[in-house]
Amino acid sequence: MIQHAEAANARFTQDLPKGFSLDAPHHPHISMLQRYVRTADLDKVYAAAAKVLADEKVTSWKLKAFKNPLEGHWPGGNCVKPTDDILRLQQDLIDAVAPFTQKTGTADAFVTTPDDPEINQPTIDYVAAFVPEATGKKFNPSGQLGRSSRR
After folding, report:
1. Fewer beta carbons below 10 Å: N end or C end of the chain?
2. What are the pLDDT digits (tens) for 30-44?
3. Cα 26 from Cα 28, distance rounded (Å)
4. Alpha helix (H) residue ranges in the chain
């Protein structure tokens, strides 16, 4: 996935210069979970997630990309066929961070940049509803290949 993501990102950044390049802070990834958590609990959230991830061998998983979820609109990711491992890991992460989650948040919960300074209400609502609206059997994993998911 990493090799394919890097090749795709090189093409994206030629065609879409406002997209970000894959580099040290921008790795190809699959967003497994989105939740609001209290800033004061971030270290606990990181520790809980690290504990779950410590026993996983995610780099050995075989994943299959099968389509671009927003073909023609946003060339930033490919849908990945959900596997039992992905769904189990997602549920383990949900359970691990549950004690630290909040039902909703505000735009202040997001990182902004001068080029992308606004967080819209649909984005805020999406994160609030991610569990259970987009998890488990409803989860549509997509491999982030380097283009920002916010539009």
Report:
1. C
2. 889 999 999 999 999
3. 7
4. 2-15, 42-54, 84-97, 121-133
DSSP 21: P
Residue 6 CB-density burial (10 A; 0-12 exposed, 13-18 middle, 19+ buried):
middle
Please list the ranges in the chain whose pLDDT falls under 70. Answer: 1-28, 66-78, 143-151
State the sign of the Cα–Cα–Cα–Cα dihedral 131, 132, 136, 142: negative
The token pair at 5 is: 């993501």
In the chain, the N- to C-terminal Cα span, in Å, equals 24
- Residue 67 neighbours by CB distance under 10 Å: 11
Tokens 């998890």 correspond to what residue? 135
Residue ranges of domains in the chain: 2-144
pLDDT score of 63: 79
- Confidence (pLDDT) at 15: 57
C-alpha 109/C-alpha 132 separation (Å) is 20
pLDDT in tens, 94-111: 999 999 999 999 999 998
45 neighbors 37 (Cβ within 8 angstroms): yes
